[in-house]
Each structure stands twice: as C-alpha cells, then as structure tokens.
Specification:
Shape: globular
Distance between the termini: 30 Å
Number of helices: 9
CATH superfamily: Aconitase, domain 4
Radius of gyration: 20 Å
Largest sheet: 7 strands, mixed
CATH topology: Aconitase, domain 4
Strand content: 15-25%
Structural class: alpha/beta
Number of domains: 1
CATH architecture: Alpha-Beta Barrel
Length: 205
C-alpha cells in the first residue's frame, strides 16, 4: 500500500531526551486491546503526559505550548526498545509525529517506523542536545527543517547532515511500503515465474 511521501518536514520539534523509553511507555497494552488503529493517538506517551486521573501534567513538555503541536520528536538513546508492537509507531504517528531523531532505537521499532512512513534518524547525542538547547530558548527557535532529499537538518543553530539507508530513503520519498516497493518489480517477478514454470513445472501443478 502507499504511504504519505516524506520529503521535507518544516515543523515544531520537541525535546524528550529520556533514555530507554520503551514501547509500553509509548502505548500501553491495555489501550491496544481497547482501541483500533486510528484511535491510538490520544494515548501515545500517556504515562508521561497524563496523571492517574487522565489529566494532563502541566510540567510535561509534551503538553506545553508550542511543543504540544510538534511533529518532530527529539528522543534519548534506545528509544522504542522493549516489545515489538507496531502499534507504538501507529500511536506516535496518529499523535502527529512524522519524524523521530534519537542516538539509537530499538531495532524492531526503528524498522517499523520506516515501514509505516515515519522518518527515524540516528544522530550522535551531542548533536541532538545542541538542537534541544536551541529549542528550549523559546518560540522563535522551535522549528526544525528536516530535508530527506538533501539528508540535512536545519535549525536555529546551524545545519546537521544525516544518512538514511538508501532503500528506506527511496521508500519514504516515494511513499511506498515494502509491498508496494516490491510490486514495482512486478514485470521481473512475472518473467521469473514464467521461466521457472518451464524449469520446475511440478511446483505449479
């Protein structure tokens, strides 16, 4: 299936530089059992954003203006570790996050991001902290421009280069998930199958 194309994202970024934020923190398992895809956004990161009565915590930066409207999330090391629930990516995506920047990710979470159209970028912690420091200065410095075509991040303090694996980059730029990307080679697949039928007809009986 197709995904929304990711090329240039110019948006508010929010720093959440906590290490080891696991997928259970991103979306609680009981929420996954109660809500289908498309209704998970309000529950993303709820243990950080909400108190026991479901009220927003005013001291949580995710609830504060202008960061509550962020589409770019700066995260700490090992973001998305823990269980392999794809719903963690869905929840963040439905909450509005289109790009997550961290020093490292849980491997399965990282791949789930890219396969669902969320740009996940690995950067050294020092570079992320430099961006976060400018974000904390106030409303004039909270926007970040992430350009996947140029593979660069522009913020109030300068420009940072990044790299995304070529196939993942192509998929995001074209808005294609792994199945859609494979179907682009349908003529080659059909040609192989036709040839294979002549070589091993017993497999197609």
């Amino acid at each position: 299936m197709s995904m929304e194309k990711v090329r240039v994202l110019d948006a508010i970024a929010v720093p959440l530089l906590m290490a080891n934020v696991n997928t259970d923190v991103i979306i609680r398992i009981e929420r996954m059992s109660l809500y289908p895809r498309g209704e998970l956004g309000p529950w993303a990161l709820e243990t950080l954003r909400l108190d026991a009565e479901g009220r927003e915590r005013p001291d949580c930066i995710l609830n504060q203006a202008p960061f509550r409207d962020a589409r770019i999330l700066l995260a700490g090391a090992n973001f998305g570790c823990g269980s392999s629930r794809e719903m963690a990516v869905w929840a963040l995506q439905e909450r509005g996050y289109a790009c997550i920047i961290a020093p490292s990710f849980g491997d399965i979470f990282f791949n789930n991001c890219l396969q669902n159209g969320v740009l996940a970028i690995r950067l050294p912690a020092a570079q992320i902290e430099a961006v976060a420091e400018r974000l904390r200065h106030g409303p004039t410095d909270v926007r970040v421009r992430v350009d996947l075509e140029r593979q660069e991040i522009r913020y109030a303090g300068g420009v940072i280069a990044f790299e995304v694996e070529p196939l993942a980059r192509q998929s995001l730029l074209q808005g294609l998930d792994p199945i859609a990307l494979t179907l682009q080679r349908e003529p080659e697949i059909a040609a192989f199958q036709a040839h294979d039928r002549t070589q091993r007809p017993w497999l197609y009986g």
